[in-house]
Design a protein that fits this description.
10 strands; alpha+beta; 4-stranded antiparallel sheet
Length: about 375
């Protein structure tokens, strides 16, 4: 079915993204995978090309266009290229809204120009060794010391953890407040007592640096409080629909691309003297995946439009995230199977997509959490 959500300007932007990928990312990506981290030059190149801070107001160096369809184009093209290591979606779609909606005027002028130029790479630190989806389990704490906060604790599985120049840290500022005793503190590169642990060895997305972070008596200036004191829970809940939609957009794009690759493969690959595509079982597999992708794409495009108009709620964002990422996982597994032994070889895109995509049903809220949100909304 022909998609109807994009205009000519979005397709022009798509060509810009493809050119950027061909010139600045794909020639270097194998080396980044070996290094376990992307080059900072790629972030600067993305800034020069106008791919960072597209929704940030122009007065701070951004694109000044909040139309979320541009984020959809970026997600789709980076997914199709198989290059999740350069985490522009995390930077733009997940962290960007915290800075644009919560930062004071002084903070915006201090941080947003570098955010848009690629000079300041960002991360958000929520997950801890003993606390993932359950915010009440967060132990990282910040003690009010008058003119600063004294931050202590640790975080893990932090995307962009090695490269990040600004880290938004979720910390407990009121011990007895439960989930409502948390605040957002911005820790900047070079802060005394802020240490990065190892670059974690993952099964996929090797080029995307993911790290442990440690905070030992870090003095965080009072002016680095982001948003309201003890308001982190509300801030996080407000921004989660966009984060989950961003993950879902990558999920359906990955499933569609894997289906394209596999359709081509089964037409060319022969078994028992004829193309695989001539076997009824293969045709049924392709038919099932194509139908699932088409139905999911229709729902996702509706969610993108709704979000662009400020109408996407938590429940439908959770539906999108659950369904699209679980579909991505199923399609990756089935497409690898249809590739046979070649699907298990790292040089084949389907093999890398299989391992790169496995995290999709986990981060941003697990599938189980998504179902809980949806079920609770219907039955409470």
């Amino acid at each position: 079915m022909k998609r109807r959500i994009f205009e000519a300007e979005h397709e022009a932007f798509r060509e810009t993204v493809r050119t950027f990928l061909a010139k600045e990312v794909l020639p270097h990506y194998e080396q980044w995978e070996k290094d376990g981290i992307v080059s900072r030059q790629a972030w600067l190149a993305a800034g020069r090309q106008g791919l960072l801070g597209t929704a940030v107001p122009q007065e701070y160096g951004g694109g000044g266009n909040p139309d979320f369809r541009y984020a959809a184009v970026l997600a789709e093209e980076f997914t199709r290229a198989g290059t999740p290591g350069l985490a522009l979606g995390l930077h733009n779609d997940i962290i960007g809204p915290y800075l644009t909606s919560l930062a004071t005027e002084e903070q915006k002028r201090r941080w947003l120009p570098g955010f848009c130029s690629g000079e300041l790479v960002t991360a958000i630190a929520m997950t801890e060794p003993g606390a993932g989806s359950d915010l009440q389990g967060i132990r990282t704490s910040a003690e009010d010391r008058g003119d600063h906060w004294l931050l202590n604790g640790s975080k893990t599985f932090i995307s962009n953890g090695i490269l990040a120049d600004l880290v938004i840290v979720v910390a407990r500022t009121t011990p007895e407040g439960g989930a409502h005793g948390l605040s957002l503190l911005v820790v900047e590169r070079g802060a005394e007592g802020f240490e990065r642990g190892r670059n974690l060895d993952k099964i996929g997305q090797k080029a995307q640096d993911t790290a442990e972070l440690f905070f030992h008596d870090v003095r965080v200036p009072k002016e680095n409080l982001l948003g309201e004191l003890n308001g982190a829970f509300v801030h996080l809940m407000h921004n989660l629909p966009q984060e989950r939609l961003s993950i879902a957009m990558a999920g359906i794009a990955a499933a569609e691309h894997l289906l394209e690759l596999t359709t081509t493969y089964v037409k060319e690959r022969e078994a028992f003297g004829r193309p695989l595509a001539k076997l009824q079982h293969i045709r049924f597999e392709i038919a099932e995946m194509a139908t699932e992708c088409a139905v999911t794409r229709t729902f996702l495009d509706r969610c993108i439009v709704d979000h662009t108009h400020g109408e996407l709620d938590h429940v439908h964002a959770s539906m999108a995230k659950w369904w699209a990422t679980e579909l991505q996982k199923r399609v990756a597994d089935r497409c690898l199977q249809l590739h046979g032994g070649y699907g298990y070889m790292s040089e084949f895109p389907v093999a890398r997509a299989f391992t790169d995509g496995r995290i999709q049903t986990i981060y941003g809220g697990t599938t189980e959490i998504m179902k809980e949100i949806i079920g609770r909304s219907l039955l409470s």
